[in-house]
Amino acid sequence: KQEVTQIPAALSVPEGENLVLNCSFTDSAIYNLQWFRQDPGKGLTSLLLIQSSQREQTSGRLNASLDKSSGRSTLYIAASQPGDSATYLCAVGGSGNTPLVFGKGTRLSVIA
Amino acid sequence: GAVVSQHPSWVICKSGTSVKIECRSLDFQATTMFWYRQFPKQSLMLMATSNEGSKATYEQGVEKDKFLINHASLTLSTLTVTSAHPEDSSFYICVNDGYTFGSGTRLTVV
Fold first, then answer.
1. Is B4 on the interface with A (CB under 8 A)?
2. Which B residues, 27 through 66, put their C-beta within 8 Å of a C-beta on chain A?
3. Which residue of chain B comes nearest to A88, CA vs CA?
């Protein structure tokens, strides 16, 4: 059974810092991996989707990498801003009609 | 792109009543809909998988008679929380097989 772990569970950084969020998964036979952002009391916003054949994806200040063989992904946030404060969730998807398996998330606070 | 419209976005109900949550796939036919719930400060946990025209598959520990799932068409899946109790208060969210998310429903049972 796939298990997804995110480290750290919470992170507080001053504005402007670059930071890395980590995600690991136990079964490397994944179809894709997604990073989401969730604001308190809100739904999920998809940030980056990496297919299993890809190594990384970039969007603005965000860069996500995927090392499928080692079961790891990182989300790099450059020049963090207070507006980046949220919970970041990692989820892996299998092939076909299989549900996403989510990690518990990393709660990020960027202090102005 | 594909959109999943989820309603209501929030609901407060009394203990013992039932609440229905709807997810409609717009411009997309979803054979499968995944239903998740999220307790405060916890991650999203899969409750059940619904397939159009067949019975839903429930995850271990999820009561199928309490959480009724109907997927009568390729565009509509519903989750009904029957005889709701305060411990059912949670954030419920649907995801179709194209990995398009509904916006979620925050249920508070008082």
1. no
2. 31-32, 34, 36, 42-46, 49, 51
3. B43
Q: Tell me the pLDDT tens digit for each residue of B15-40.
A: 999 999 999 988 777 789 999 999 98
pLDDT at residue A96 tops 70? no
pLDDT in tens, A18-70: 999 999 999 999 999 999 999 988 889 999 999 999 999 999 999 999 999 99
Q: What is the rounded distance in angstroms from the CA atom of residue B39 to the CA atom of residue A69?
A: 32
Residue count (chain B): 110
- Between strands A10-14 and A106-111, the pairing is parallel
Please give the sequence-ordered ranges of beta strands (E in DSSP) within B1-110, or none if there are none.
Answer: 3-7, 10-13, 19-26, 32-38, 45-51, 57-58, 67-73, 76-81, 90-96, 105-109
Residues B78, B81, B82, B85, Cα dihedral to 10°: -170
Q: How far is C-alpha B56 from the chain's CA centre?
A: 12
Helices (H) and strands (E) in chain A, counts: 0, 11
Are B46 and A103 an interchain contact pair (Cβ–Cβ within 8 Å)? no
The CA R_g of chain B, rounded to the nearest whole Å, is 13
Contact A88, A33 (CB under 8 A): no
What is the 8-class DSSP label of residue B86?
Answer: G
Mean pLDDT by 10 residues, chain B (110 residues): 89 97 87 92 92 90 94 90 96 90 95
Q: Could you tell me the sign of the dihedral formed by the alpha carbons of A28, A30, A32, A36, in that order?
A: negative
